[in-house]
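Narrative of accomplishments. A recurring question from our advisory board has been how the design workflow behaves on a single, concrete structure rather than in aggregate. To address it, we present the structure tokens for one chain from the evaluation set, followed by the sequence designed for it. No filtering or post-editing was applied between the two.
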């Protein structure tokens, strides 16, 4: 994934996607008898997103202010993707021993790694402390575990924080809202006695130097995200005033940025950074180090799932195209279509954009349950067997974390770069074989 990407002048994401689909068909990444499904990742789009993030914060931070951008590994848990982002200066936010292992396999240094999880075991905490990884404790009980693990360690090697839930409210997707009154994450800032406890926790622990907040994700408006950040910034100011010294030195601004799944419009990193600067100006005066933990916003737009249309039919007057992409990849879209709609782009058997007068069609997947639909009554040119469909904006949470329904095989994931006359693919994850699936299933 380290090939140089040199797109032709004026070639944007949609044009690169068309080139990649045609090349994937031509080069046999999808075939009639072998691999009817593949996932494509646009390297240029990932790099552009990382550059946009860096630029957005560079424009509002003080000269020399320390800022670490990390990538939420859960959004694309693939080692070559993490390595690509590391090359763009993006570290890793991890939430399990597996994700931590992936970050290490990608060569991400400990100083660029953060461990967040609501259920860390003593062994996980001990490993993180041994490695020098930043750890954000989720609750008072975890903090007490750290009390027992910290003695005897050099204080300068510790990067320990506490996660706070600002309880500012939720967005349009309840399951993605982490700053509600009853969220399972962090210490509820507005709970009775919580603020006083938080101040005392820092005063009693000189090694506790970071505050973490996660107030946003898909469906959460930017102003609500910024309000959550402001609440925790003000808590940091209160703690430092009570200590009479800068006890809190790093603010970890966790949480994702909403992605527009209706267009190719990139995430609004610049708008969010400027909003933070207006909402909590003290964040950017150089007194605090900052950490970000974006996931979906960095890779979603780079991903395209490409699948062959195996059959087409009608039922009750409704046209249905049966494809090889369904709930095993698009889990959220299939089970919560109103919250996670995906654009569908059709292509002909040679991988060229399909034209024709659109008619309503259901796009069905291969899973054996009725609701396995990635699109319902979607106006598209009439599809026929041998055509292809693509599911757009799937570079985060789709092909990297498959659902093993019906023991369907994981598709190959291929990063691509483009030049004026060629498309080059690099294998991120090879297609799963039947033998591998049987072995993983205890055979």
């Amino acid at each position: 994934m380290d090939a140089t990407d040199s797109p032709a002048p004026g070639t944007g994401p949609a044009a690169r996607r068309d080139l990649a689909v045609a090349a994937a068909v031509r080069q046999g990444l999808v075939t009639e008898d072998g691999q009817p499904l593949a996932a494509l990742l646009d390297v240029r789009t990932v790099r552009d997103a990382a550059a946009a993030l860096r630029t957005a914060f560079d424009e509002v931070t003080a000269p020399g202010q320390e800022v670490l951008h990390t990538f939420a590994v859960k959004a694309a848990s693939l080692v070559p993707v993490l390595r690509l982002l590391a090359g763009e200066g993006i570290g890793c936010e991890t939430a399990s021993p597996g994700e931590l292992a992936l970050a290490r396999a990608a060569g991400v240094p400990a100083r660029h790694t953060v461990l967040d999880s609501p259920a860390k075991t003593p062994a996980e905490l001990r490993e993180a402390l041994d490695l020098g990884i930043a750890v954000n404790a989720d609750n008072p009980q975890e903090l007490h575990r750290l009390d027992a693990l910290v003695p005897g360690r050099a204080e300068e090697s510790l990067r320990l924080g506490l996660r706070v839930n600002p309880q500012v409210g939720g967005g349009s997707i309840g399951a993605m809202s982490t700053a509600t009154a009853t969220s399972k994450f962090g210490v509820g800032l507005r709970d009775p006695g919580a603020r006083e406890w938080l101040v005392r926790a820092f005063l009693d622990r000189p090694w506790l130097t970071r505050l973490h907040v996660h107030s946003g994700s898909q469906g959460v408006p930017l102003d609500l995200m910024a309000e959550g950040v402001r609440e925790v910034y003000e808590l940091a100011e209160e703690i430092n005033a009570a200590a009479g010294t800068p006890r809190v030195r790093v603010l970890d601004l966790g949480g994702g940025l909403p992605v527009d799944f209706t267009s190719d419009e990139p995430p609004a990193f610049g708008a969010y950074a400027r909003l933070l600067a207006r909402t909590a100006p003290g964040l950017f005066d150089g007194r605090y180090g900052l950490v970000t933990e974006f996931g979906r916003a960095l890779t979603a737009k780079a991903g395209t799932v490409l699948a062959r249309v195996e059959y087409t039919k009608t039922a009750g007057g409704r046209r249905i195209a049966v494809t090889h992409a369904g709930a095993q990849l698009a889990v959220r879209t299939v089970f919560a279509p109103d919250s996670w709609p995906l654009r569908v782009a059709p292509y002909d058997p040679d991988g060229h954009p399909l034209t024709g007068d659109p008619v309503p069609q259901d796009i069905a997947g291969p899973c054996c349950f009725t609701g396995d639909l990635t699109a319902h009554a979607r106006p598209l040119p009439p599809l026929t067997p041998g055509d292809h469909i693509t599911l757009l904006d799937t570079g985060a949470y789709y092909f990297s974390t498959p659902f093993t329904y019906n023991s369907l095989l994981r598709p190959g994931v291929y990063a691509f770069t483009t030049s004026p006359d060629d498309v080059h693919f690099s294998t991120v994850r090879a297609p799963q074989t039947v033998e591998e699936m049987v072995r993983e299933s205890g055979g």
